[in-house]
UniProtKB/TrEMBL annotation:
Record keyword Transport present: no
Name of protein: Acyltransferase family protein
Ranges annotated as spanning the membrane: 26-46, 71-88, 104-122, 165-188, 200-221, 236-253, 269-291, 303-320, 332-351, 357-379
InterPro entries linked: Acyl_transf_3_dom (IPR002656), Glucan_succinyl_AcylTrfase (IPR050623)
Keyword Membrane applies: yes
Entry-linked Pfam families: Acyl_transf_3
Domain of life: Bacteria
Keywords assigned: Acyltransferase, Membrane, Transferase, Transmembrane, Transmembrane helix
All copies of domain Acyltransferase, residue ranges: 22-375
Molecular function in Gene Ontology: acyltransferase activity
């Protein structure tokens, strides 16, 4: 193998994986679609903080929101780990790290100023009576040491902020950590312990139970000391969850036997996941007291069960290509970057119009989706905008021989 490629990675199962895992594309697409719906719900769910809230708040909405809030983000990191494993089978390390850095860090840096800044502006106007227009705000936003900031006009809100773009920073950091750990992971895979773990994970019960234990242990050790911040440098409790499932995805990336088991037992995994959701809901929303150790096990077993169940159903029913998949693969990162700013801008205006909760939510959702669609239609036509939003400079640029989208291309392609 060329010296610029990743160290040899011994197969976890067999190397006869499909040429492309379309089901992973669809999982990522559906997870980001759910993200848009989830953020729309955050405008209306009672008691949960968000950048802007409607006057139509709902307590029952918590039950629906909680369903996906536990596993939605871990699913994205899990799929990203799988993509990284498959990419490193054929892509040089330099290309892997270069694409991840270009397609993730550049949009993170530029869009935190160009796209995210209106979110803070509308939040300040709605919640704190900010007296100036957007032009004055933007001038101050670009100067973190501006005197008006130091006098508390921004009410302690972080400036500048990446808000929902935190995912890009975390994915980049985990990718770089993976590259640094490759020699160790290769050695572990070849070691007696690694072979024993692989054999255990080929057993259905072990595949369900064992991966949940490190997740629960991380929660027990870190949750009381580190609050969730989305600030990367001090978010150790969430790193113990997100980075661990990212590594699980890498570990299982091309393992044929575990994937066959997951696909075959998808119904049982779904039923167990529904039972886990019932217990988590009873604990968080119905006030059912659980000892901390039991809470940690229940919550993280629930997360892992849903990752397995969703992966099993996707592997069974979504491993096919479609023009919609190809469009979404390209559009997913620009849509992700744009959606929350469009949503908050629309909500800032619409919550003052006296609409009912259903009509208000529908109109905000339509404006958000239409704005993302129109925004991507413009972005894809201009090379500078393509660069800012993480797209390849040429419309038909191929990465690793496939029509990889920006998040996937950042991994170097999602092929075995």
């Amino acid at each position: 193998m060329n010296q610029s490629h990743a160290p040899a990675l011994p197969p976890i199962g067999t190397e006869n994986a499909p040429a492309r895992r379309y089901d992973l594309d669809w999982l990522r697409i559906l997870a980001f679609a759910l993200l848009i719906l989830y953020h729309l719900g955050m405008l209306y769910v009672a008691d949960w903080e968000f950048h802007l809230k409607s006057s139509h708040l709902s307590e029952p909405l918590k039950w629906l929101m909680l369903f996906s809030s536990e596993w939605r983000l871990p699913l994205l990191f899990f799929v990203s780990g799988i993509a990284s494993r498959l990419a490193l089978r054929r892509v040089p390390l330099g290309r892997f790290t270069g694409l991840r850095s270009l397609r993730l860090l550049l949009p993170l840096l530029l869009c935190s100023y160009l796209v995210v800044s209106p979110q803070l502006f509308f939040q300040l106007k709605a919640d704190h009576g900010y007296p100036h227009g957007f032009g004055t705000f933007l001038w101050q936003y670009l100067q973190p040491l501006h005197p008006e900031l130091t006098r508390g006009v921004f009410n302690g809100l972080i400036n500048p902020t990446w808000n929902h773009l935190w995912f890009l920073a975390y994915l980049w950091a985990y990718s770089m950590a993976l590259v640094a750990l490759l020699p160790l992971l290769g050695w572990l895979t070849r070691s007696r312990v690694g072979r024993a773990v692989r054999e255990l994970l080929n057993r259905p019960l072990s595949l369900v139970l064992l991966p949940a234990l490190p997740l629960a242990l991380g929660f027990l050790l870190l949750s009381e000391h580190f609050a969730t911040t989305r600030a990367l440098v001090d978010d150790w409790n969430m790193h113990s969850l997100y980075f661990t499932v990212f590594l699980y995805g890498y570990w299982l990336g091309d393992a044929e036997r575990p994937w066959a088991s997951i696909r075959r037992r998808r119904r049982s995994l779904l039923l167990l996941g529904m039972a886990g959701y019932a217990l988590v809901s009873a604990h968080y929303l119905a006030g059912m007291a659980l000892p901390r150790v039991i809470e940690a096990l229940v919550v993280h077993l629930n997360i892992w069960l849903w990752l397995l169940a969703l992966s099993g159903y996707a592997a069974k029913y979504l491993n096919f290509d479609h023009p919609l998949r190809r469009y979404c693969n390209r559009a997913i990162l620009p849509w992700y970057i744009l959606h929350q700013t469009l949503m908050i801008a629309a909500a800032y205006w619409l919550v003052r119009q006296g609409l009912g909760p259903v009509l208000e939510a529908v109109v905000i959702g339509v404006i958000t989706v239409a704005g993302c669609w129109a925004g991507y239609a413009v972005i894809r036509r201009y090379r500078p905008l393509r660069l800012v939003f993480g797209l390849p400079l040429a419309e038909r640029e191929r990465v690793a021989g496939q029509d990889d989208g920006p998040l996937e291309a950042a991994a170097g392609g999602m092929q075995s």
